[in-house]
């Protein structure tokens, strides 16, 4: 679903830089509720012409309308085109600002405005610490918060902001990190619990 | 020269001021059309960075938006 902020095993989804054999496990975004500010403004912009056009039509000089009716219609169409453009831009920025967890790494994709793109990634085995926080009335009521990930990679910190159920996200990442470290240790001759196995001569 | 002075003088009348406003609104529409075009490029970049099943939908919406802004600016040019 296009408005989903937590997708498990997404189909037909790929990101730039995906390795061969790598599979996307989770795609997360800020909770859709965090968009309430621009959504409210969009609704106001949709309703504004109903009052604006009445005001523009009543502007008179010498007993005649100051603005041509055709111009008022065009201005209204332009207003709605701009409103749609504003909505589309904000929606796309929300949609494409994603946090991706794959079988190998975590990826933080940031688009800010039309002229900024930043992609950071860190392999799962480089993750050192995962913390989740929920603060404020809005966060507590709707269970929306941040997940802070500390890594040993070049990007030292990742922050997944405004995600729904941050405790679940923290748990998912922690489990994946544990699983990948366990499989790494088994490959190196360690037991599942990290004990050194006696090698046969 | 006289026509030029008359033109400048007309701008300081009510009707002249309305003409100036309509002209600047048209310029705003042209600038907005450029932004709409940039948005189509941005959607292409976003779809390339993160491909989803909704990529064709976003591309179509961006192109429709660009087309609508061109249409509105062009029609306004005939009206003002």
Structure description:
The complex is a heterodimer of chains A (201) and B (80). Chain A contains four helices and eleven strands. In chain A, helix 1 runs antiparallel to helix 2 (69-96). Mean pLDDT of chain A is 86; it is low at 190-201. Chain A is elongated, with a radius of gyration of 25 Å. Chain A is α+β, with helices and mostly antiparallel strands and 201 residues long. Chain A has a five-stranded antiparallel beta sheet with strand order 1-3-6-7-8, with no helix packed on it. Chain A has a three-stranded antiparallel beta sheet with strand order 9-10-11. In chain A, strands 4-5 form a two-stranded antiparallel ribbon. Chain A starts with 5 loop residues before the first strand and ends in a 14-residue tail after the last helix. Chain A has two domains: 21-30 and 97-187, PH-domain like, CATH 2.30.29; 36-92. By secondary structure, chain B is mainly α. Chain B has one domain (2-79). Helix content of chain B is 89%, strand content 2%. The longest helix of chain B has 36 residues, at 14-49. In chain B, 21% of the residues are buried. Classes of the chains: A alpha+beta (201), B mainly alpha (80). At the A-B interface, strand 2 and helix 2 of A face helix 2, strand 1 and helix 3 of B.
Biggest β-sheet strands, sense, barrel of chain A: 5 strands, antiparallel
Q: Give the percentage of residues in beta strands of chain A.
A: 25-35%
Number of self-contained structural domains of chain B: 1
Task: Work out the number of β strands of chain A.
Answer: 11
